TrEMBL record:
<keyword id="KW-0812">Transmembrane</keyword>
<keyword id="KW-1133">Transmembrane helix</keyword>
<protein>
    <submittedName>
        <fullName>Uncharacterized protein</fullName>
    </submittedName>
</protein>
<keyword id="KW-0472">Membrane</keyword>
<feature type="transmembrane region" description="Helical">
    <location>
        <begin position="14"/>
        <end position="41"/>
    </location>
</feature>
Length: 152
C-alpha cells in the first residue's frame, strides 16, 4: 500500500509517528556518547585493575539490517534498536564487572536490574570474613576471561 494511502487511512497514527520519531531518534546522541564513554572508561580503568575487557562486538551485532524482506525504514529502525540495545547491554556488562570487582555484595531485596554476575556476589548482611570473601570475588572477576558473560 502506498504511503499516502496509509496516511489517509489512519492520519492520527502518522501524526503520532511524526511527533514521537524525533524523540525516539534524538536519543541516538546520548547513546553514542554513552558508547564512547563506556569504551574509554573500560580502556583506561580495566587494565589498571586487571579486569578482563568486555568485547563490544559481542553486544553490538547490527545484523537485522541485512534482512532482505525488510523495507528501508524497517532496516533503519532495526539498526537503531540493535545499536541502542547493544550499547546498553555492553554498558551493563562493563558496569557489572566493575561492581563485581569493587562491591560484590547483593542488595537486601533482589534488584530487577541485576546482571549475570550478581549471583556470584556476597549475600547482603553476610560480614563473615568479608575481606577474604571480597578478595576471592576480585580474583574471580579477574579470571573471568572466558566465562564472564553468556555470549563469550
Amino acid at each position: 500500500m502506498a504511503l499516502l494511502q496509509r496516511i489517509k487511512k489512519n492520519p492520527k497514527h502518522f501524526l503520532l509517528i511524526a511527533i514521537t520519531a524525533p524523540v525516539i531518534y534524538g536519543l541516538i546522541i546520548p547513546v553514542v556518547v554513552a558508547d564512547v564513554f563506556v569504551s574509554l572508561y573500560q580502556a583506561i580503568c580495566f587494565p589498571v585493575y586487571q579486569i578482563p575487557r568486555v568485547k563490544r562486538s559481542h553486544y553490538l551485532t547490527l545484523e537485522r539490517k541485512k534482512l532482505s524482506y525488510l523495507t528501508f525504514f524497517q532496516k533503519l529502525n532495526c539498526l537503531y534498536c540493535d545499536y541502542a540495545n547493544g550499547v546498553f547491554a555492553y554498558a551493563s556488562e562493563v558496569a557489572g564487572r566493575t561492581e563485581w570487582y569493587w562491591c560484590p555484595i547483593k542488595h537486601s531485596s533482589h534488584a530487577l536490574r541485576s546482571h549475570d554476575h550478581y549471583e556470584k556476589f556476597i549475600e547482603y548482611g553476610d560480614g563473615t570474613d568479608f575481606p577474604k570473601q571480597h578478595k576471592a570475588r576480585r580474583q574471580a572477576c579477574r579470571a573471568c576471561e572466558s566465562s564472564c558473560s553468556p555470549s563469550e
